[in-house]
Specification:
By secondary structure, this protein is an alpha/beta fold. It contains eight helices and 13 strands. The strands form three sheets. A nine-stranded mixed beta sheet has the order 4-1-5-6-13-12-11-8-9, with helices on both faces. A two-stranded antiparallel ribbon has the order 2-3. Strands 7-10 form a two-stranded antiparallel ribbon. Strand 11 and strand 12 form a beta hairpin. It is elongated and about 105 Å long. About 30% of the residues are buried.
């Protein structure tokens, strides 16, 4: 008689197996004991698999870098306006002040970018010397806006002021000229507004009318007590990049708040717009850089989407596209 504990013919007897009613059902392991997993390629090698894994990781890192790079907020520098101390004053008016006009900052920030006012630097300061230079700002910021303000000094373009009140701000000229050249040398875009337009022309060897009403008496009035409410029409010459930005604009209207204007063009500087009908230069562009443009009017005073004055957001967008393309 066979033994009650015998499990089968030829099998050695073993201890009785106790089956628990709540024990999980084991799934048979169908993997081959000798070959690779079925999802692997036939004839694959460890080196080939490792290469594909590394390639996959590199692609993931590249995609993440590209995504973060495109989403990183642009950082735009704006030159400072300078208030010089007034003789006999006390408090703030007795100090050198550097400030940023709110409207230009808000115009640039309307495209969701960060704005930084760039102060003057003084490496030889007696109280607080520093090794920081304007080149550091050009290296770490993505673009530069030269805001409006005081007259460019005639001394900066080798002339003498014909009237004392037209002597301009020579100190600010030197600061902004260095700032402009550092950004151009760094390959970063520059947008000049009003005074900034005039400074770009002077920076490359051009000159200015010290006073449009005096030097060009047949011209329209380009400055008025209405300030930013004063306006006139402009035209884009053939081939103007501004004309390409505004293909449907037929003699658009801009504000006019300047008594100085471009006279002789600087080297490699071309006209982008002129006032109508007197032909005073209203916009320029430096051809030896990707984007260095000056607007004689104040685009920050033009309402976005407005129809009475030229909506200048396409100019801002072109400037910011250049900033993104040249960023490090």
């Amino acid at each position: 008689m066979a033994d009650d504990h015998q499990t089968g013919e030829g099998e050695p007897p073993g201890p009785p197996q106790e089956t628990r009613p709540d024990a999980p059902i084991r799934v048979p392991d169908r993997r081959s004991a000798d070959g690779p997993p079925r999802y692997q390629r036939p004839g694959d090698t460890p080196f080939a698999l490792a290469g594909r894994v590394l390639l996959s990781r590199w692609r993931a890192m590249r995609d993440r870098f590209s995504r973060d790079f495109m989403r990183r907020t642009l950082r735009i520098g704006v030159s400072a306006r300078i208030f010089h101390p007034e003789p006999g004053s006390t408090g703030l008016r007795s100090k050198n002040l550097q400030y940023l006009e709110e409207s230009i900052a808000q115009w640039v920030m309307s495209r969701d970018v960060l704005v930084f006012m760039i102060p003057t630097v003084n490496t030889n300061g007696l109280l607080h010397p520093s090794n920081i230079t304007l080149r550091h700002y050009a290296r770490h910021l993505d673009g530069l806006v030269l805001q409006g303000g005081a007259d460019v000094s005639p001394q900066t373009y080798s002339e003498s002021p014909t009237r004392p009140e037209w002597s301009g701000d020579r100190a600010r000229d030197l600061y902004e000229l260095e700032l402009l050249h550092e950004f151009v040398e760094a390959g970063k875009p520059v947008l000049g507004v009003c005074r900034g337009c005039q400074l770009i022309n002077v920076a490359f060897g051009g000159s200015l009318y010290q006073d449009v009403a005096t030097n060009v008496p047949e011209a329209l009035a380009h400055v008025h007590t209405d300030y930013d409410a004063h306006r006139h029409a402009i035209e884009f010459p053939p081939g103007s990049s501004l004309g390409k930005m505004f293909p449907k604009a037929n003699r658009p209207v801009v504000n006019s708040i300047h008594h100085q204007a471009v006279k002789e063009l600087g080297r490699d500087v071309r006209i982008e717009a002129v006032s109508y009908p007197d032909g005073i230069v209203e916009a320029i562009r430096y051809d030896k850089a990707d984007f260095v443009m000056g607007l004689q009017w104040h685009p920050e005073f033009h309402r976005a989407g407005g129809t009475d004055l030229l909506d200048c957001t396409p100019v801002l967008d072109e400037f910011l596209r250049a900033a993104r393309e040249t960023r490090l």
